[in-house]
Design goal:
A: alpha+beta, Phosphatase 2c, domain 1, six-stranded antiparallel beta sheet, five-stranded antiparallel beta sheet, 9 helices, 11 strands, B: mainly beta, elongated
Chain lengths: ~280, ~240
């Protein structure tokens, strides 16, 4: 069984009047979510809150048992838990879209979503929008999410033309939760190892603090303290946006079973005495 | 605070109130705030959240769906007098007398942060005209060119396997994508994942270890074009195809 040391923190920042970010940390479900809402007034908050709550409730329902209906759009190239996470995201997208299109004051609202969901031996990363998911393995930092904004997509397609895209367009999202009736999340499922560290954040952090800086902090500090340090750094550098961060440290990737597991279980009380 | 009157046919079975800032869950299981004992109702059927100054009903992907005023909904902002149907039961939503209700039309949005597809196309057209190169396009998932990894067998098996799955499993287990036999072979010995940076091969830590280009893999490595992978009796080459 995987043991995860986790913490999450959200902060309004220095300039905004409300916090449109939402996050969720659950070591029992092994589900971790960051959503960055958009849309004026309360709408951004509503969108991100709805996204996080819907995915949480769906995954919880699936885990509890018998009513685990899969959405019709399940993908055969994915494992069952990965499909469940996708179903939760699709459900949340539909929910936000419906609210946005049925109530004028919420029209046009949307959100990003970045999710990490653990199975017994893999981790699943899924995202829509530009909230990054970082993985550090043996000191190498990798981004597990795909950034769905204009500049990233066009750089991949036609770098020459992408350089001419105006500043005002660069960071705009090309995919978002609740914007259309359907959404296409990006997803990957990988093996994890003891010592791996994952950071999920909103762009309020990633626009201010580089991934190298993030892991310098996270490598040194416990997740809870690291979250606070990172939020402080983003605020000290302006804090124009809401800041949200989740830090996950993977402690034990494998079950200790068999003979060596038995030995270590027997030795455990002695270790406690001697330490 | 608003109340829900739970009815079955003409019988009122109970009243449930919802406080601002709180949520109510509806379902067959007893742990729900509004439990409904009926086989047409899913264990976790729907929920109601207090959001902003309104109340929002969300169907939790229930088997038989949630209806408001006889229309199937995924989610719905509740208004005075709405009749929510869950299975064969109904919940009537009403505010208390003199209670504040959300304004019918609140002011519009300040700004939209997601690109409207048409605007996006126009903007790209202008960027392209300026360079005089290439054609413009709004990327959709079908247009994004993706390289697919392929494993072609060199020894121990014949043919090739396209790595279309996000996670490909290799091991002794019969459900593996590539089944490899051997005394020390684990049920799942290695996996190959498709991740944003490309394909990676991971060893799961049990039994026979794999080799990539002759090097034993203890955890995981990124795969490059023409890498040779060896596991037990099987040898294969990793190739990227457009």
């Amino acid at each position: 069984m995987v043991v995860i040391e986790s913490a999450g923190l959200t902060d309004i920042g220095r300039k905004r009047e409300g916090n449109e970010d939402a996050f969720y940390v659950d070591d029992d479900l092994k589900l971790y979510l960051v959503a960055d809402g958009m849309g004026g007034h309360l709408a951004g908050e509503v969108a991100s809150g709805l996204v996080v709550e819907t995915i949480r409730d769906y995954i919880r329902a699936v885990n509890e048992g018998e009513d685990a209906e899969q959405l019709e759009d399940s993908d055969e190239t994915l494992s069952k838990p990965a499909n469940q996470l996708l179903s939760g995201i699709h459900l949340a997208n539909r929910g936000v879209h419906e609210v946005a299109s049925s109530n004028e004051s919420y029209s046009g609202m949307g959100s990003t979503i970045s999710a990490i969901y653990f199975t017994d031996d893999t981790l699943i990363a899924a995202n829509v929008g530009d909230s990054p998911i970082y993985l550090s393995h043996n000191g190498n930092i990798e981004i597990l999410s795909i950034t769905h904004n204009v500049i990233t997509e066009q750089m991949a397609a036609n770098p020459e033309a992408a350089k001419l895209i105006g500043k005002e367009y660069r960071e705009l999202l090309t995919r978002g939760m609740g914007i259309k009736e359907t959404v296409k999340p990006d997803i990957c499922e990988i093996q994890f190892f003891s010592g791996d560290i994952i950071v999920i954040s909103s762009d309020g952090l990633s626009n201010k603090v580089s991934s190298e800086e993030i892991f310098e902090v996270v490598d040194e500090e416990k997740p809870e303290k690291a979250c606070q340090t990172l939020v402080n750094m983003a605020n000290e550098r302006g804090g124009e946006d809401n800041i949200t961060v989740i830090v996950l440290k993977i402690k034990a990737a494998k079950d200790k079973s068999g003979f060596m597991g038995m030995i270590s279980r027997i030795m455990l009380p002695f270790k406690k005495i001697f330490n | 605070m608003p109340i829900f009157k739970l009815q079955f046919k003409d019988n009122v079975l109970g009243e449930f109130s919802i406080e601002p800032g709180k949520s109510l869950t509806i379902g067959r299981k007893e742990s729900n705030d509004i439990p409904i004992e009926n086989l047409a109702v899913s264990g976790h059927h729907a929920k109601i959240d207090s959001v902003g100054d309104g109340y929002l009903l969300t169907d939790l992907k229930s088997k038989n769906g949630s209806f408001v005023n006889n229309e199937l909904v995924a989610s719905h902002w509740l208004k005075e007098g709405d009749i929510v149907t869950i299975g064969k039961h109904t919940l009537v939503f009403s505010y208390a007398e003199g209670e504040d209700r959300p304004a019918e039309d609140a002011p519009g949005m300040e700004q939209t942060m997601v690109m409207d597809t048409n605007k996006y196309r126009d903007m790209l057209d202008q960027a392209m005209k300026a360079t005089g190169t290439g054609e413009t396009r709004v990327l959709s998932e079908t247009q994004v060119k993706e390289q697919i990894g392929v494993l072609s067998f060199l020894a121990g098996a014949e043919g090739e396997l396209e790595l279309t799955k996000k996670l490909t499993k290799i091991g002794k287990d019969a459900s593996s994508d590539i089944v490899v036999s051997g005394l020390m072979m684990a049920k799942t010995a290695i996996t190959i994942s498709k991740r944003p940076q490309g394909y990676s091969l991971s060893y799961l830590g049990k039994g026979t270890k794999p080799k990539v280009n002759g090097q034993t893999v203890k955890e995981s490595v990124m795969l490059n074009d023409f890498d040779e992978i060896e596991i037990g009796t099987i040898k294969m080459q990793f190739v990227l195809k457009n």
